[in-house]
């Protein structure tokens, strides 16, 4: 039986996928891919490879997770070379571990191919380091998308008081609550905040503000998901070291029909 590869596609820029991840794409018989991968990566698939869209939007899923799990098992049991291609890193808010668990339960060999996660890459493309000798010696990645019907398990007091830089995934819709919790537990209103939409893609857009006014900034600039929220003094470095805006943009790649 061949091995299933659960591959991190990186944050968006097609050049940020790992060499190993690209080799997996090139040799796959089946590629089950997510919504936020750069579709240009699919052009590296071999002729005849089956490409299956597994994207998820709020309240609208092309495939529910259980269907994805079954597909991975079924195709692997047919002896096909299966790739599960996920945005960013499969183990950072990507449900890759859940898929690996299912494969293990069915005694199907698998391998995890890490990818660059957007919580680091998007700020870097915006000129914001997540750590800095003078400004930040600690960094946390947090989900901003709370599961329905479950209590908020995030340790907001620890984040607010103990972490210098916070990268929050999928948090635009919950920004008022996130802001409220950070302020409630001691973060100052003047704390710098950035939102990076479509990080590392050609259409990346970055806005900055503070905990005092970031809601108004986001509303005015119409920032939507997918976006990373960065909270911390490192945001101030963007004024000095932003670089992407100085690079001549390449034409946007239209979504590939597969």
UniProtKB/TrEMBL annotation:
Domain of life assignment: Bacteria
A Pfam short name: TP_methylase
Keyword Transferase: yes
Gene Ontology biological process terms, A to Z: methylation
Entry keyword S-adenosyl-L-methionine: yes
Enzyme Commission number(s): 2.1.1.107
Family: Belongs to the precorrin methyltransferase family.
UniProt domain Tetrapyrrole methylase: residue ranges: 3-214
Protein name: uroporphyrinogen-III C-methyltransferase
Annotated keywords: Methyltransferase, Porphyrin biosynthesis, S-adenosyl-L-methionine, Transferase
PANTHER family in alphabetical order: S-ADENOSYL-L-METHIONINE-DEPENDENT UROPORPHYRINOGEN III METHYLTRANSFERASE, CHLOROPLASTIC, SIROHEME SYNTHASE-RELATED
Native species: Lysinibacillus parviboronicapiens
Major enzyme class: transferase
Gene3D superfamilies membership: Cobalt-precorrin-4 Transmethylase, Domain 1, Methyltransferase, Cobalt-precorrin-4 Transmethylase, Domain 2
GO molecular function: uroporphyrin-III C-methyltransferase activity
PROSITE patterns in the cross-refs: SUMT_1, SUMT_2
Entries under InterPro entries matching the protein: 4pyrrol_Mease, 4pyrrol_Methylase_sf, 4pyrrole_Mease_sub1, 4pyrrole_Mease_sub2, CobA/CysG_C, Siro_Cobalamin_biosynth, Uropor_MeTrfase_CS
